[in-house]
Design brief:
By secondary structure, the chain is mainly β. Helices cover 0% and strands 41% of the residues. It has strands at residues 23-27, 34-38, 53-63, 69-80. Strands 1, 2, 3 and 4 form a four-stranded antiparallel β-sheet that branches. A hairpin with a 5-residue loop joins strand 3 (53-63) and strand 4 (69-80). The chain starts with 22 loop residues before the first strand and ends with a strand.
């Protein structure tokens, strides 16, 4: 069955009722989030602990049946300063 008529059967369609989207990709693919840290004095010598700013995030992309990106979402959370 292909409820939305996009050419992707419902069993493999992350959006079976939306013909503009077929697949959702998340980075990282499984589990939690990515973490990025910055050093405030870079590139000068400093404590180099990369904890002056810390952000955790994940990104999601929605693709249509042809594999083209139709929407990108990101979730970012400021963790440390």
């Amino acid at each position: 069955t292909d409820t939305d008529g996009d050419g992707v059967v419902d069993a493999y369609d992350d959006y079976p009722n939306d013909s503009t989207k077929a697949t959702k990709l998340k980075f990282p693919a499984s589990g939690g989030v990515n973490t990025i840290g910055f050093e405030g004095l870079f590139p000068a010598a400093g404590d180099a602990d990369l904890n002056d700013t810390v952000v955790v995030y994940y990104i999601e992309e929605d693709l249509n049946a042809a594999g083209q990106i139709v929407e990108i979402r990101g979730n970012y959370q400021y963790m440390a300063h």
